[in-house]
Protein 1
Amino acid sequence: MIDVTGKVAVITGASRGLGAGLAERFLERGLGVAACARSRPEVPGARSADRLLSASVDVTDTAAVAAFCDDAIAHFGRIDLWINNAGLLAPIGPLRDNDPTEFARHIEVNVLGVFHGSQSFVRHLRARGGDGVLLNISSGAARNAYAGWSAYCAAKAAVDRMSESIALEEADSGLRVHAVAPGIIDTDMQGLIRQCSPEQFPRVQKFLDLKDRGALSSTGFVADRLLELAFDPVPDTPVLTILPLERA
């Protein structure tokens, strides 16, 4: 494995699921981690307060995200990697049945939250100079439509296009950008998907079968692949990146 000791990463949506797994694994690998979520993340394995900054942040609040970025810089001195991971799956079900307020909240978190995090990190990078990596967590749903996931598909497609635009805009700044589809990971979100009825989500059986076959990736596996992408990249890796599946 590459040595990432001393690198600093910000992770949004780090109180559970993939974000919590990333924070825990990054600390194990020797990174400094600034972890935030609406509920302040409690990260296992944080043996030193010097290497963990944890805070309650609503990613839809531009001032709150900017303030957390400033706090991370004050705590660690710099940020090398920013991961926009915070996201919602609901509302699930046909668009005709979706609650407009819930749909709007989904877009605020999954799209506007990525905007806020990306803007804060880009401004930091421009101010300090040097290289940095922005990873926006996307999904295969950005490329392939699913009945019952109109909000999720729309939001992740927006994240992909936003990431491509940022990469073009910041080509001269030392920033590398990827919208990453991390695969199907064994998290609480997957549990929520498997609880859906076929009327809500017609493809639910696919996800039940994947669980039964033990075909889900672990958060630790994804964390290591993201660190490789960030700090030991293969040349000419595209902005839209699909991680390999974990081998059993």
Note: Residues 78 and 128 are 8 Å apart (CA to CA).
Protein 2
Amino acid sequence: MQVDGPGTALMSVLMQPLLVLAALLVAGLTFWALHNGKQRGGKQHDDGASEGVDRTELLLAGALTLATAFVVFNKVGSPQFMVWLAPAVAVGLAHSWREWRVPAAMLIVIAVATYFIYPLFYDALSHNNPWMALVLTIRNILLVVLFLWSVRRLYLLGKRTPAATPVLKES
């Protein structure tokens, strides 16, 4: 099914360049965060603590941001695309439950809304049912919010400063 209406032709033309631009920006943000982490030391201490950015967290945030960008900026709205988001969130929960519970909750709501859209009420949506259009709109807004959350997470990981360590001056 294809959506038609005012502005759809223009948006169809713009979506591919927007998708490429979003992917490049996410890659750039990820590399910036990694570079900042290295600049701040990135040293591993004997007790297992490290300075700089948590590379596992950075990989997970980058993966979620990139996958979400591919869903948000894709002109094809396939319900199967929601599956792309699950691996990064599942591993993120295993890595840091506290940090990843918000995207996990959003992803559950996105998955339930997607299930209502397809396969349950796809026929109603294709016949312009306003309730199903509302469910689809809410799901799409949540996808944008998840994208913004993951962009913010990447940014904060890159900006994070290590705990202050005493500096010994030589006399």
Note: The chain has a mean pLDDT of 88.
Protein 3
Amino acid sequence: MLKKSILPFLLIAIIGCQPKEPCAAKKMGWMEKPVSEWSDLVMTNSVEFSDTTYRNIGNAFLIDTGSDTLAITCKHIFMLFREETDNTINLGDNFRKWEIFPKGKPDKSISLGALLNENRNEETGDFNTLKSRDWLIFRVAGTDDFTPLKIRPRPVSEGEIVYAVGWAYKQTTEKPSLVKMQVYRNEGPYFYVNTLIRNVDPAGRSGSPVIDKNGYLVGIVSGAEGNLGVMGGVSFLFQQLDLNSFSH
């Protein structure tokens, strides 16, 4: 039985450059171009279990750790899979495949490998418990046609301008939208932002990467609290992947 697509979750994110950061010295070349000319940076998720397929759920993207390319999306996507996963962060025996691809282009799909932060002892929880750890990290292969993001090693600062790159659930444009935001407050594992453009549809933007003005990854779109967007901070990646220390 094929379950109809379920509206994913929410919003948009934020981070920027500090004087000692590598991104302050070098802007990614694609950031100089309009979004319409960017190579594929963001994808959507399609997840298949033995009797259920979830399509068009949230956004996903690739990261370059310096030694590997990995795939990323939001952990709260597991809130849709409670029945299939026994309400824990593991894919279970009924899992068949997880693919990501640019929206509307399933012919360019990437099959994801092992879920690196799978944990049968970690309950899915709800948004308030997930926002400080709202990252899924997958092994991946065959990524030559896509642009992985480099991670900025310093946190965002209050007032910094950042951008969320992704599609809303109902958005059908070929390219994702670029949503400008401003950091309101940094809580360490996550941060709050104000969206600086009007008429942004928040539904389904979860999992979008949040980049700074130079194109470095500073967060992931997680959700919303009141009028503020909630973005997961990249400190989680540094901890999980044992990368160089993250400065708070």
Note: The mean pLDDT is 85.
Protein 4
Amino acid sequence: MTVLTDLDLDPGIHSWIARLEQLAPAIPGIADPDPAVQRIAARELSDRLAVDFTLPIPDGIEIDDMEIAGPGGSLRMRRYRPRAADGLVPSQLWLHGGGFYAGTIDEVLNDRLCARRALDSGVQVFSLEYRLAPEHPYPAPVLDAVAALEALIDEAERFGVDPERLGIGGNSAGAAIAASTALRLRDAEGPSLCHVDLEVPPLAMRRVGESAVDYAIGFGLDQLEQIVALYTGPAGPADANISPLDVVDLGGLPSTLIMAAEHDPLRDSGVQYAERLRHAGVPVELYIGAGHLHGTPGLTASFDGAREWQELHAGHLARAYDTRTARLAG
């Protein structure tokens, strides 16, 4: 088993860890057993870290909030649209991270990363405020994502979406939800997606591979089983798609990008999913960020590796969504 102090990490990551360890103990509720209390504290910690360690929202992006009808009531989405965009453009539904029970589109980190990725890739991004566990266990967030995709297609003119170039993506828990959503749409012959984008994804509701053993303690996912229990709910998983890696047939899915961190207990989950997708004939690209921990791809103000990660991410999206042919003004 690897200990965090054994790793030769970038100084920018060390600074982030030191700041996290300084801030966390002073935030009320950060270790509260009530997920509703803990998510408020986690938001405060995330925002305070992002202010110092993530590059600000760049110029050239228009940001607006909108609402759509969802299966449990109205859903908020935040749109990041390149100011130069004209007409119907390639678009991605994005699902934030947060362990299934936390996270929000209002987080500073989410705002800053989505805005910069939209500008750098030319892909319009819609970040969805999906319902959270344990109040709303699986498949609630998947159903929210399906509703959002259907709205983006049905009201393409309103949202400025090219329905032929619409995809889904997510970070961490959001990536798992995105992968489950793609499977649900395939099985139900729902809206056709052009791409799936999975960043540091947990693709099985269990520990997977050597990375889960090597980085079991002290790497941010020590309580994985408890988190999974919140997501699945007391009745257990509603269907097999909750754990995409364990789905028998992965054929017929859209082309997929998987971005995994080297020192992440979830790394082998992403690696094995990429292997299974390839075996099923799905075009897939796997990137493993050298020197990264699960939470370091967002450290764009302090870590060269995070800036490289985000540049590669945006470049892949530009190719996958073919933004060269999008109608851009100027």
Note: The chain has one domain: 4-325.
